[in-house]
Give the backbone structure.
Amino acid sequence: MAIDENQVGIMKLQNSPFLPGNDATFQAWRDRKLDGYPQSLEELVVEIENPLQPTPAEHQAILQRVRKSGMAIYVSATRDDPDKGVIRSLGRQFGLERLDHNMCADDDAISSLSVHPDALHQGYIPYTTRPIAWHTDGYYNRLDHQIHALLLHCVRPAAEGGANQLLDHEILFLQLRDRNPAYIQALMHPRAMTIPANIVDGEELRPARSGPVFMLFSDGRLHMRYTDRSRSIEWRDDPLTREAVGVLKQLLRQESPYRFEGTLQSGQGLICNNVLHTRSGFEDGEQERLLYRARYFDRIAGS
């Protein structure tokens, strides 16, 4: 008897190591996850001769790193070439097609991250020199429009600063579950985290959005929506959620061998399944810092 795709999806979800109560499955996944996990940022780096058309070996090297840690850093010879075709083409090589046309993105849905003093951008930290705390992209999106993959490509770094910290959200899930499995249940509650409405000059640009921190999709994969902001956020008001959030924030602040830090240089980029990341403050020199950012509703194919 044939099994339809819906049945396959249900089976994958029921067998997911991220589903509360699947203790044996989680422990087996935990052992595999930590076995051979990268110990430095350098282990995430893959050199690409031509990002418009990676070789099969280059493609496989990136995919291996994404499968293990959710992310990879590529180094290409494009240097400070401002051609956006590089990031769009590279994304397509990994099944990334459906771009998020967010409000401050360019017409092609790829954001040019540089300092923008105009009225549209000035209220949004990515377009300033200020630091950005731990977050996953699109945490304020509707639950059916979550960002599953992210591509950052550096055209020009800042004269000083602009470093990123990176943390695989599956590792954070693992650490929280090790502390107390009940934390996971609290953070999977459908109203665990609410982002208040975005209102500018009396106009509602986006309604309030509630949802879980950790989400499971039909294929059993784990997704995280999170921001470390202390204002303009509402946490579910119950003791267990408050305790879980406190431990989560503590884990993000303490030293960890699983956290990586580096500054993208010209021609380098990050491709990931929307892992947790930060950005330090920076100062521009004679030329402005410029990174391209592409957000996708797709997950990296094969990961």
